[in-house]
Amino acid sequence: MKKYKILLAVSLVAIGLMTALVASINEKKDEQEKLNQVPKVDRWETKNEEFRKHYPRQFDSWKETKKSDEIHDMLKEYPELVVLWAGYGFAKDYNAPRGHFYAVEDNRNTLRTGGPVDEKTGPMPTACWTCKSPDVPRIMAEDGDMEYYTGKWSKYGSDIINPIGCVDCHNPETMELQVNRKYLDEGLKAAGEKTLAEATQQDMRSMVCAQCHVEYYFAKTPLADGKSAAVVTLPWAEGTLVEDMEKYYDNMEFKDWTHKVSKTPMLKAQHPGWEMWKTGAHGKNNVSCADCHMPYVQEGGIKYTDHNIGNPLENMDKSCMNCHRVSEKSLLANINEKRERKNELHKKAMKALAAAHLEAGKAWEVGATEEEMAPILKDIRHAQWRWDYAVASHPSFFHAPEETLRILGTALGKAGDARIKLAKVLAKHGAGDYKAPEIKDKKQAQEIIGLPFEKLIEEKMKFRNGLMQEWKKEAEKKGVYNPKSTEGVEDKTSYN
Ligand code: HEC
Ligand code: HEC
Ligand code: HEC
Ligand code: HEC
């Protein structure tokens, strides 16, 4: 009798468990089906929170990018950069990238965007917002591209307010991947690459990133009303290698700025991440940005895309080990070796360039002629462009290790050429014993180039406590901003 009772009890428990399991499977199935249906979200809904009710997993993982919140002051780590960028915004403030969640905040807080007092002041054009927010394609659609590209950065302070989010990569009506910034397709066409219309789903998994992680410049474009627009343009018409873009810029005699010390017409590389990726082992095999940065996650019966875009080395089991059979440890060791190889050449090139700028400054001071300096400035321009290209396309040492070392090698070569020529010019003008000072820290570097750091901070703080707060209130009134979305977020910067 006892035996039967036990058997009955066991069976009942088993049936109970089975029923629960079936119910759970059905529930998951329902949920998956619900997920597969596309709920109606407004075409230009840029408040990311509005997507949470429909796509909780994607939203919650997207919001995890908030955890990557460290400010890493690159000018403090490499004070030579202050000299390399003398006369240009980057000498004022430059941090390593952090989570997408901070894109708008960091853009407003950087000393590079200055301290505007109204919609017509400040050092930067509207184009500076372009890869920070889904409000950008919204404004482009509402105002037209040319209106968007006209005027000062401060013109859109109360419109461009939500950080990189759903509408940057998706059409919310279908949730398909979509690129809403026209310059990418124009760039692809100019380069003779596959256009967006020809892109496969796998291509799109990189293209959504390429709308921002690419090299670009602001092309000055005259408008009918006599005004001029600063239009984001990808310099790809000669191709997408570092030499191709150098040629493109040289042909049009383009410069981002004139170096304050050496008087070189300079180029600033932005972040040619997609172009570099293309030349590496993964790019050549079309392993997409999303394959590593947005791996699939299995949660119960549900499979979804991890939207916490960050460092794939933090979850190698999902981001690498589906494809690689060696151990995580040996892959990591391999990567660190690549990083060190890059750093060795990177630092050498950076120090050589800082010295070249200061030596050129001295040469002007002791009476060098334009004619003597022209070939030297050309070497400096090309050397720094190449060094910057290899370093700013973070982290190209991993995405494209050989190409990174090749480019740094040519940068070092050209910086060396400049300095040999400079030694001759300095000797000719009686300054053969000049030795450029060694750059020791950020403060000393700022003094060398005469940067009014304290004044910049003062202007910025006035802006942050004043106009910037007005922008947030206005944005809320316009219905494009939910202050809850940034509640409790600490406003971090490198300078206060
Ligand atoms: C930087 C680009 C990017 C952003 C920002 C982004 N997504 Fe995605 N999303 C992707 C990619 C890539 C995929 C994978 C698409 C594929 O290969 O089918 C994806 C897939 C999805 C899917 C399909 C189901 C799945 O998980 O694969 C949904 C739903 C989705 N995203 C919702 C969102 C929501 C909601 C937001 C905003 C909180 C968002 N996405 C922000 C790039 C992005
Ligand atoms: C709308 C423009 C835009 C799009 C689209 C975009 N990014 Fe970014 N990304 C940025 C900006 C801007 C930052 C720097 C944010 C900051 O520091 O405040 C950044 C930062 C990053 C970082 C550094 C994150 C960290 O925590 O350090 C990674 C990794 C990254 N992006 C990868 C990607 C990948 C992969 C895609 C495509 C799936 C993508 N991004 C799409 C603009 C974009
Ligand atoms: C094969 C995997 C893989 C692919 C494909 C890949 N990445 Fe990465 N990415 C990584 C790894 C690993 C790192 C971190 C390396 C490190 O330790 O610095 C990284 C770092 C980054 C960072 C720098 C973050 C920082 O804080 O400096 C950005 C930005 C980025 N990737 C963008 C992209 C874009 C855009 C693409 C596609 C064009 C792409 N990645 C393709 C693996 C990949
Ligand atoms: C979708 C598949 C896929 C994923 C995901 C992937 N890889 Fe790879 N990986 C490849 C392929 C394919 C190659 C090229 C192999 C060849 O050429 O024989 C490669 C090559 C490499 C190489 C050698 C080439 C080089 O650049 O030195 C390293 C190192 C590497 N992968 C590391 C990683 C790491 C780390 C991750 C995760 C962040 C990762 N891979 C994610 C497919 C992948």
UniProtKB/TrEMBL annotation:
Chain intervals for the UniProt region annotation (Disordered): 474-496
Quick one: signal sequence residues? Answer: 1-23
Could you tell me what reaction this enzyme catalyses? 6 Fe(III)-[cytochrome c] + NH4(+) + 2 H2O = 6 Fe(II)-[cytochrome c] + nitrite + 8 H(+)
Q: What is its EC number?
A: 1.7.2.2
- UniProtKB keywords: Calcium, Coiled coil, Electron transport, Heme, Iron, Metal-binding, Oxidoreductase, Periplasm, Signal, Transport
- Coiled-coil region(s) at which residues? 328-355
> Where is it predominantly found?
other
Q: Which Pfam families match?
A: Cytochrom_C552
User: Molecular function (GO) terms listed?
Assistant: calcium ion binding; heme binding; nitrite reductase (cytochrome, ammonia-forming) activity
Question: Which top-rank group of organisms is this from?
Answer: Bacteria
Q: Which GO terms describe its cellular component?
A: outer membrane-bounded periplasmic space
Q: Which InterPro entries match?
A: Cyt_c552, Cyt_c_NO2Rdtase_formate-dep, Multihaem_cyt_sf
The reply to whether Disulfide bond figures as a keyword in the UniProt entry is no
**Listed GO biological process terms:** anaerobic electron transport chain
Where located? Cell envelope
Comp. bias regions, Basic and acidic residues: 487-496
Q: Which family does the record claim for this protein?
A: Belongs to the cytochrome c-552 family.
The name of this protein is nitrite reductase (cytochrome; ammonia-forming)
| Upper taxonomic lineage | Bacteria, Pseudomonadati, Campylobacterota, Epsilonproteobacteria, Campylobacterales
